Amino acid sequence: MYNYFDLLKIAEDESSLGMKRIFADEILVNIENPAGTERIGMDKGKKEWRIKMKYDYGFIHCVKGADGEGLDVYLGPNQEAKKVFVIHQNDPSTKEYDEDKVMLGFENGKEAKKAYLDHYNSLDFFGSMTVMDFDEFLNIVKNGKKERVSWNIKDKRKKNK
Question: Which of 24, 34, 56, 95 is most buried (CB neighbours < 10 A)?
């Protein structure tokens, strides 16, 4: 288990990764877009999109997502939430699985799904959701899973089509 001072040292060592936030005293999250800021991107058709962030958004550097980069995370208000909600995002143009977004700090699946959808312009981004205990997710993070995380959802993805 990390202690607070270990996490601060990690944050210092990774200072080039931007703003940091420690969630539930145990998970170091690199914040790319703080709540209240505007996130800007480009869709596949080269059309610019913008969204005002309602929650802090970033990534867990030590865990790789489906895209091979840090695992994407939205941070909710409850630092003591007992569950973690992993949203399996689809590409709305193909309806195929794209990547995962982890929802930390939300009371329940309904709240996590709403918070997720508040940041997208189409319901088609939402594919499915895996719910796990916080301690199970913390174990994944503490083990620093460098290879891509698998949530064992292949069957669920097919059912959602």
Answer: 56
Task: Tell me which DSSP letter residue 149 carries.
Answer: P
In the chain, % helix, strand, coil (3-state, to 5) comes to 25, 40, 35
Q: In the chain, what are the domains? A: 4-159 (3.90.80)
Give the C-alpha separation, 110 to 137, whole Å: 19
pLDDT for res 20: 76
Q: How does residue 155 score in pLDDT terms, banded at 50, 70 and 90?
A: very low
Q: Which helix (H) or strand (E) holds 21?
A: strand 19-23
What pLDDT shows up at residue 151?
64
- CB–CB of 68/148 below 8 Å? yes
Give me the helices (H) in the chain, please.
4-13, 109-117, 134-142, 154-159
